[in-house]
Amino acid sequence: MPKTIYLDCNATTPLEPEVFDVMKHFLEDEFGNEGSRTHEYGARAKQAVQKARDEVGALVGATRDEVIFTSGATEANNLAILGLSAHGETTNKKHVISTQIEHKAVLEPLEELARRGFEITLLAPNKEGWVSSEQVIGALRPETLLVSVMHANNETGVIQPIEEIAASLKEHHAYLHIDAAQTYGKVLDSLKNTRIDLISASAHKIFGPKGVGAMIMRRRGYERVPIKPLSYGGGQERGLRPGTLPVHLIAGFGTAAAVAKRDHAKRLKKVTSFREDLMKGLAPSLPVVHGDQKRVLPSVVNLSIPNLNSEAMMVGLKDLIAISNGSACTSASYTMSYVLKAMGLPEAEILSALRISWCHLTPRVDWAMVAERLHVLR
Q1: What residues form DSSP beta bridges with 357?
Q2: How far apart are CA 224 and CA 289, in angstroms?
Q3: What is the mean pLDDT of residues 175-197?
Q4: What is the dihedral of CA 140, 162, 192, 8, to 10 degrees?
Q5: pLDDT, tens digit, for every residue of 49-78?
Q6: What is the rounded distance in angstroms from the CA atom of residue 45 to the CA atom of residue 125?
Q7: 109, 112, 182, 299: which could join 271 in a potential S-S bond, CB 3.0 to 4.6 Å?
């Protein structure tokens, strides 16, 4: 039987061969603890971690001491949001601005802040799936502590105008946090904006290993963002994230970041070509595409096929392509996408919505066969 082609890269990506080779080396040969200072195994592990900090930071124009390794973007989001709560309480700045289309890894920490007495303003997207800088300006208050906006939505791929939002905060003290899980290593220039204080990233979205990510924490002049740790038990990661560092994962993350920078143009060309083939191949099925296609990541499309339910399509196509109808974090028990609902899509379109996401490693798909199967399912 031919192998089903994986088209769910927004959930996770395959591992780059170069990344696997580096991880294998630090599992089998250089397995020392980065915190061991009395022998060369520890010294070489520390060198590997520092190199990875440089590589991870380089993608966003950050220095090694601004990179805090975490278990992934979810932990980074929690650290960025909940870690600021003590400062907000001390300074009486207890207002936070975010959007209705954030990942649950942002929305649920914000719910926790609300339980602690913070006021949360969630901006609604327009029908094309993005919020404007004018909306942010309109919501700002003197007591606004934080603005947290995802860079690209994980369901639609629509890129938010973070550079405009950053510019709108130029004269305001609020910290700006960007959840860049879907764009780190893929959209390079805008994340280098120095008005962005905090960036969350995850290795497994850029062809690295699962279980490691980073929070990039930029200084304002000589001042660090006043984040407090969420857990205790060691001095690792500037005291913000205790625990023995997983050197093999961190080294793999660093390599994935370095390769993403090196191969950016080549990858972009491949995913753009794949998108053209996909849209041409599915045209007979009359897809309704969701989100502003002038602002979307080239490696994802969210669409509906009229008169077909998404669950039926996923089952009917499972021997051909592996796809999803939303975030992997909420797929265990399907409910209608809150992202598409916030955009104001009709219920019928939401119930038939599919997310198809790919990468430079994705093989060619026989879209004519997919379109034929969709015709049969109707």
Answers
A1: 8, 300
A2: 42
A3: 97
A4: 130
A5: 999 999 999 999 999 999 999 999 999 999
A6: 45
A7: 299
Length of the chain: 378
Angle between helices 247-262 and 17-28 (to 10 degrees): 160
Measured CA to CA in angstroms, residue 331 lies from 87, 334, 352, 353 at distances of 35, 5, 15, 13
374 touches 323 (CB < 8 A): no
pTM above 0.90, yes or no: yes
In the block, which residue shows the tokens 């010294």?
43
| Residue pair 186/360 in contact by the 8 Å Cβ criterion | no
Instruction: Report long-range pairs for 261-266 (Cβ below 8 Å, ≥24 apart).
Output: 261/55, 261/58, 261/59, 261/185, 261/188, 263/360, 264/186, 264/188, 266/360
Q: What is the phi/psi pair of residue 193, to 5°?
A: -60, 120
Lowest mean pLDDT segment, chosen from 11-20, 160-169, 304-313, 326-335? 326-335
Domains detected in the chain: 5-14+264-377 (3.90.1150.10), 17-261 (3.40.640.10)
Residues serving a catalytic function are 329
**CB-CB neighbours of 289 under 10 Å:** 14
Please state, in angstroms and rounded to a whole number, the distance separating the CA atoms of residues 159 and 182: 10
Q: Phi then psi for 236, rounded to 5 degrees?
A: -65, 155
CB of 121 within 8 A of CB of 95? yes
CB atoms within 10 A of CB 108: 14
Angle (deg, nearest 10), helices 367-377 and 264-282: 40
